[in-house]
Design brief:
By secondary structure, the protein is mainly alpha-helical. The chain has one domain (2-67, 80-193). The chain contains 8 helices and no strands.
Length: 194
């Protein structure tokens, strides 16, 4: 969408809305992965990631004119190459995260999941779930890692917008920082209340 907005300025708001919806969908996906494999952490992860998702959808509905014509030349992002790339990335991040946790403790794991989230929050989420299932980290640390990876993934969308269409950066940054702020506040409140 940002590439289209570069050529057609009437699509700027639509591109911002699409970026916000991508962040919302990513937060929902990460929450579903954690809830499925670490049910004990359902509340502590569902609330902050749910807040990110609801806020992202709400803002996108507010800022976008969804009646803008985008044409029909969209292509599917799914391919065997992407699947293999994701698998390889998952393996590397799994090994590095486990090693970082052993060598540096929780801070090593959290740093690794944040950095992994810059590339793929799905990979950092799958890594956290895998490490919990093998007993290498606690459910609480895994949830913190998922949140770190999600935050990184939301932030990286600002970079994508900057590399494609600079005029999108301010609004994408503003709305994405709001998503992160709301997710962290809800997550903090959830932890305190529990």
């Amino acid at each position: 969408m940002a590439k289209r907005a570069q050529k057609q300025t009437s699509m700027h708001q639509l591109a911002i809305g699409a970026i916000l919806l991508a962040s919302a969908a990513m937060a929902v996906r990460n929450a579903i992965i954690v809830i499925t494999f670490i049910p004990a952490a359902a509340l502590i992860v569902a609330l902050p990631l749910g807040a990110i998702a609801v806020t992202g959808v709400g803002i996108s509905l507010f800022v976008c004119d969804w009646t803008t014509d985008i044409g029909t030349d969209l292509r599917s992002p799914f391919s065997m190459k992407n699947a293999l790339l994701f698998g390889g990335l998952f393996l590397v991040i799994l090994v590095v995260s486990a090693g970082a946790e052993v060598v540096f403790g929780a801070s090593g794991f959290l740093t690794t999941t944040f950095l992994a989230g810059l590339v793929s929050s799905g990979t950092s989420t799958a890594t956290a779930v895998t490490l919990v299932s093998t007993g290498q980290i606690s459910a609480e640390l895994a949830v913190a890692g998922v949140i770190m990876g999600t935050v990184a993934s939301v932030l990286v969308k600002v970079l994508f917008a900057a590399t494609i269409e600079r005029s999108l950066v301010r609004l994408v940054l503003q709305w994405n920082l709001l998503l992160i702020f709301i997710g962290l506040v809800v997550g903090g409140v959830t932890i305190v209340v529990q």
